[in-house]
Amino acid sequence: MVDYALMNQLLFEGKHEPVKAMTEAALAEGRPAAEVLDDGLIAGMRVVGEDFKHNRIFVPEVLLAARAMKAGMAVLKPLLTEKKDQRTATAVIVMGTVKGDLHDIGKNLVGMMAEGAGFTIVDLGTDTSAERFIAAIKQHEARIMGMSALLTTTMVYMRTVVQKVREAGLHHVKICIGGAPVSAEYAKEIGADGYGADAASAVELFQRLLAEQDAQAATAAAGGSAT
Questions:
Q1: Which among 15, 20, 71, 128 could disulfide-bond with 10, CB atoms 3.0 to 4.6 Å apart, if both were Cys?
Q2: CA-to-CA distance for 31 and 140, rounded, in angstroms?
Q3: Of 46, 6, 45, 44, whose CA–CA distance to 22 is shortest?
């Protein structure tokens, strides 16, 4: 029998081949793909996220753990895609570094951590225009958009992206920003919904915004059914 606690530990240690083998073994035992994802992979990445947030581990360890996560995900993805009824669709986050900026290490780290938390990530890469953000949000029905910048000269473009996303009528999308030159104050100033100081904080922000969206939708549905 596959031991999920051991699988979590191996993922934490970045042992991608053993994690892949244990993922395959769990499926061979008849475990549901969604269970293997939640208990075998996401649970392990949750510990990675907590330790990273509290400076018990650092970027190299997170990258190794993320590689192990991806090794397991490669085995599970075809099954999760085929059997959507076994698992509710995960929330989509569209991410990108803003136009004129080619830095992506921070963005990539946030994306891997968010994927480890169960989100579906659509990564637009670097030098991303407002139009590309908008097209991706519509195409993938994203609920959250994340953008990063490492330069003071490119962070100003974030305001343009926020304005154009709102002008496109995508008011339901929560917009989050991150990167060395930006702050929570800047997020408020440009009309974004939140700021992530680091990868772990960004994932917590995504989870909180998603919970707020779900709560609002539930309240609206309850109000509609009462009338």
A1: 15
A2: 29
A3: 6
What's the CA gap between 177 and 219, in Å, rounded? 27
- For residues 107 and 96, is the Cβ–Cβ distance under 8 A? yes
**pLDDT tens digits, 149-174:** 999 999 999 999 999 999 999 999 99
> SS3 helix, strand, coil % of the chain, rounded to 5?
65, 10, 25
CA distances, 53 to each of 13, 58, 60, 65, 131 (Å): 17, 9, 14, 15, 33
Cα-based distances in Å from 158 to 135, 166, 209:
16, 12, 19
φ and ψ at 174, to 5 degrees?
Answer: -85, 130
Distances (CA, A) of 118 to 13, 75, 114, 144, 159: 20, 15, 7, 14, 29
- pLDDT tens string 83-125: 443 334 589 999 999 999 999 888 988 988 888 888 999 999 9
- CA dihedral sign of residues 116, 49, 218, 95: negative
Extract the runs of DSSP E, i.e. beta strands, from 25-173: 92-97, 120-123, 144-148
Distances (CA, A) of 29 to 2, 38, 129, 227: 8, 16, 46, 49
For residue 175, give the nearest of 220, 127, 214, 142 by alpha carbon: 142
**What sign results for the dihedral spanned by CA atoms 61, 63, 64, 66?**
positive
